[in-house]
Amino acid sequence: MTPAPHRSHTDDLLSFIAASPSPYHVVASAAQRLEKAGFRELRGTDDWTGATGGLFVSRAGALIAWYVPEGAAAHTPFRIVGTHTDSPNLRIKPAPDNGTSGWRQIGVEIYGGVPLNTWLDRDLGISGRLALRGPDGVPRSRLVQIDEPLLRVPQLAIHLDRSVNEGVALDRQRHIAPIWALGEPREGELLRRVAAAAGEDPADVLGWDLMLHDIQPPGYLGVDREFVVASRLDNQVSVHAGVTALVDAATGAAQPAFIPVLAAFDHEEVGSGSETGAQSPMLERILSRSVAARGGSDEDWSRALAGAFCVSADMAHAVHPNYSERHDPDHRPLPNGGPTVKVNVNQRYATDSTGIAVFTAAAERAGAPWQPFVSNNAMPCGTSIGPLTAARLGVTTVDVGVPGLSMHSARELCGVRDPGHLAAILTTIMVGD
């Protein structure tokens, strides 16, 4: 059976995932854990002068958190863990209430690289945030999470489509409208249901960012319960590991030799091109402001970056037993073999030999295994926030990730040991020697 330390970490991971069906909930869950560890939230309009200790800034579905050890110089280098909060899913359209043939349906849009067949015949809830009227005309935000079987995308019976097992592609727009009732469409019905769940007046709702999620809870799989199965492992495994590492670095017996940083971006699954994505100046501005808040100059900022190091943590592919020919023949990571170090010479990953050396040395000190990963050269390689962060900040970056199966599926799989191994390595990197 799985040793207790690994099971303890993954038990906590599963609780984190269950509480975080949307990027906005991921940020709220991370913030709650950081505040419990003594971190405090800073607003953009606050005066940051002299701010030390554990600090974080949240904005919609993104969060930047860092810890300033007592007496740290303004030019102290950063140790950054970069992750993302979003996952591929189905997102609700602005005018959602529709239907056909006597069924009431909800209009949705595909977000990211969704294997649509994995969303068929699943019980779906609704989550996200509402933008509401606020005092003095300033909008306020409210999270909503409905873990009830409200909707379903029904698959066409095999009797009506004998080619269903022949790989016929789904119509990406017409056949994904979930059902949730019988009868003619009722304008405003969805809004009323969601507002009621949030305890708000529908008339106060000015806009929303709502999405669907599979309500089946995360859990364990396998004869020895050696696998984790859950929605949104990509990339909440890494966010949870990053939060765990940052808290451990801030509260451990040894003060970090660096400024440990967690950067959890939104919209990675659609290119990171937003105000809260990795292509935005969010991380750069927050880190530079943190240097200035400690009395640092432009020279101190340059020195802090020159000595910085970044780990871009995102899920990776384990070798698939039924499609092993799709993988590189010499690089076949397996669950519970440790996190992978992802290499691509065309810079789809930012890893180089220097980054590998830092990561593997930390793995040795943490007593954690690791595995190399290279994609099959015969097909396009995925990418991550690593190259974006490396290019924007000019810091040495290594791309890593827990290997798993069913990536981007409505329900993914990884090994029970690997999330804990990743957190241990990230803690070692954040603390330094």
Reconstruct the topology from this structure:
Blueprint: H1 4-18, H2 23-36, E1 40-41, E2 53-59, E3 62-68, E4 78-84, E5 89-100, E6 103-111, E7 124-132, E8 140-151, E9 179-182, H3 189-198, E10 205-214, E11 219-221, E12 227-230, H4 233-251, E13 259-265, H5 282-293, H6 298-306, E14 309-313, E15 316-317, E16 340-343, H7 353-366, E17 371-374, H8 386-393, E18 396-401, E19 403-405, E20 412-415, H9 418-431
Parallel strand pairs: 1-2, 4-13, 4-14, 14-18, 15-19, 16-17
Antiparallel strand pairs: 2-3, 3-13, 5-6, 6-9, 7-8, 7-10, 11-12, 12-20, 16-18, 19-20
Structural features, described:
With 433 residues, this protein is an alpha/beta fold. It has 2 domains: 285 residues, Aminopeptidase, CATH 3.40.630; 125 residues, Aminopeptidase i, Domain 2 (Roll). Helices cover 27% and strands 28% of the residues. It is built from 9 helices and 20 strands. The protein has a 9-stranded mixed beta sheet, with helices on both faces. The protein has a 5-stranded mixed beta sheet with strand order 11-12-20-19-15. A hairpin with a 5-residue loop joins β11 and β12. α1 crosses α9, α2 packs parallel to α4 and α4 crosses α9. The radius of gyration is 22 Å and the shape is globular. About 1% of the residues have low confidence.
